[in-house]
Design goal:
There is one protein chain. The chain has 332 residues and is an alpha/beta fold. It has one domain: TIM Barrel (Alpha-Beta Barrel), CATH 3.20.20.80. Helix content is 34%, strand content 17%. It has 7 helices and 9 strands, in the order E-H-E-E-E-H-E-H-E-H-E-H-E-H-E-H. It has helices at residues 31-42, 98-112, 140-157, 179-194, 215-231, 256-277, 312-324, and strands at 10-13, 49-58, 70-71, 83-92, 116-121, 164-169, 197-201, 241-246, 279-284. Helix 3 packs parallel to helix 4. Residues 1-5 have low confidence and may be disordered.
């Protein structure tokens, strides 16, 4: 397929820094440098480009959620001129306040509807043992089903018919492969009809090393299995798949050159398989390191250092966006 006929992927990035348990805090975000980096990655004003952000719903007064619940802070400032918002509405209610979560989602749409391209209800709700992720909280299944319904109703009432509503997971293996089947069984046909896409957070070769030369085959196999074994049996096989988080950290034993190699292999597999696997977008996680001096696995996920110096993968990602991205004026 030539570049003039290929529809192209919608690319994006999480423009903040913190990821997982990155340890001691690094330098604060610099909005001016973030905007400059987003301009560079987007390449041409008006080209479709996604800014991913997170907003957390927690019970009022919850002492474990006293810090800022928005990541990155002030994400609205990075939108416009072709850049739209992929907003994650996280559910961290220790009391299981599903009604409050639905009201929170409606407020997000009210506030950001003009720039909101996709709204992801929940974040990796299949993970139950990590308080940073939504599966650790009571009534999460009910919250997902009710939240998706509330989002669709609010989008319709507010005049945002183009807003796409979805949910996501990390890779589902072993007993976890039934996560979506269990979810759609609980939500029924209405829930299936309400979903516009499914997201996938995946980090191949990060937590489980992959043999050299096998990365491309493993990535393709994972994507095929996710659609065949997790989505199709749940009645979701028809939905577009968006890679909502992917990255590979630098650090001790993990070179910047290898980070660029991993990025190239993964995006190449996604681009080549996009039509067959109905993959429509890819979002990188993250723009810059949480702490470039840190040695932990979560410290250096960025395409840039914590001082906003580009790593080789930054320049590569910019090139891949220009070559493979959705663009109304593609070259032949």
């Amino acid at each position: 397929m030539t570049s003039s006929t290929r529809p192209g992927l919608v690319f994006g990035i999480y423009p903040g820094s913190a990821v997982g348990d990155a340890g001691p805090a690094g330098p604060p975000d610099r909005p001016d440098r973030i905007s400059q980096a987003l301009d560079q990655l987007q390449g041409r004003g008006g080209r479709p480009f996604i800014v991913r952000a997170y907003d957390v719903y927690a019970d009022p007064g919850d002492p474990s959620h006293t810090a800022a619940r928005q990541a990155p802070a002030g994400y609205e400032r990075y939108l416009g001129n072709g850049r739209t918002l992929d907003l994650v509405a996280q559910y961290h209610s220790r009391s299981g306040d599903v009604d409050g979560y639905c009201a929170f989602i409606e407020a997000l749409i009210e506030r950001h509807g003009q720039h909101l391209a996709t709204l992801q209800v929940g974040e990796e709700p299949n993970i139950t043992g990590n308080a940073l992720l939504d599966g650790a909280y009571p009534r999460v299944t009910e919250a997902l089903i009710a939240g998706v319904r509330a989002a669709q109703d609010k989008a319709r009432r507010s005049g945002h018919p183009g807003l796409k509503v979805g949910c996501n997971s990390s890779p589902l293996m072993g007993p976890a492969v039934t996560f979506f089947t269990d979810l759609t069984r609980a939500g029924g046909e209405q829930f299936i009809a309400d979903l516009d896409y499914i997201g996938l957070d995946f980090f191949p070769d990060v937590f489980r090393p992959i043999q050299a030369g096998r990365l491309g085959a493993v990535v393709l196999g994972l994507l095929e299995a996710h659609r065949r074994d997790s989505l199709a049996p749940a009645g979701l096989g028809h939905l577009p798949l968006i890679i909502t988080e992917h990255g590979w950290p630098t650090g001790p034993g993990r070179s910047p050159q290898r980070q660029a190699e991993v990025l190239r292999v993964v995006i190449d597999v996604i681009a080549r398989g996009a039509a067959a696997l109905n993959i429509t977008g890819y979002t990188h996680h993250t723009l810059r390191d949480a702490r470039s001096a840190g040695s932990g696995i979560f410290s250096q996920f960025g395409l840039m250092t914590d001082g906003y110096a580009p790593k080789p993968a930054f320049h590569l990602y910019r090139y891949l966006i220009s070559e493979l991205g959705a663009d109304s004026r593609r070259r032949s």
